[in-house]
């Protein structure tokens, strides 16, 4: 009978130790993670002709692209999009069914240079 209770014991793992972390420990952990976080480098502003040429090539060849917009998020970093270019319409780019104003695009780069039908490991 006394061994049956031991089999019913459920260890809560780290949950029982969370109360032991002091605010000083937490601040040191946050400082350490900040020190190891890579510094953010803003993408270079490309000219409009280069942006449009890259987007047209990506569209015709079905390549995935990475796009940085001229808008900042809450962390003061440029908003980024990744996906396939579906087309152009009324001065907007359609990427993964999301319309993006061409004037807001800061930088465009190819994510991969292999068309999706040749790339069996594609994420999309």
Question: What are the salient characteristics of this protein?
Answer:
single chain; 124 residues; alpha+beta; SH3 type barrels; 5-stranded antiparallel β-sheet; 3 helices; 27% helix; disordered C terminus
Protein described:
It comes from Fundicoccus culcitae. This is YolD-like family protein. With 124 residues, the chain is of the alpha+beta class. It has 2 domains: 2-36, no CATH class; 48-110, SH3 type barrels, CATH 2.30.30.100. 27% of the residues lie in helices and 28% in strands. The protein is built from 3 helices and 5 strands. It has helices spanning 2-7, 23-36, 48-61; strands at residues 64-72, 78-89, 92-95, 98-101, 105-110. A 5-stranded antiparallel sheet has the order 4-3-2-1-5. The radius of gyration is 24 Å and the shape is elongated. The N and C termini lie far apart (57 Å). Residues 119-124 have low confidence and may be disordered.
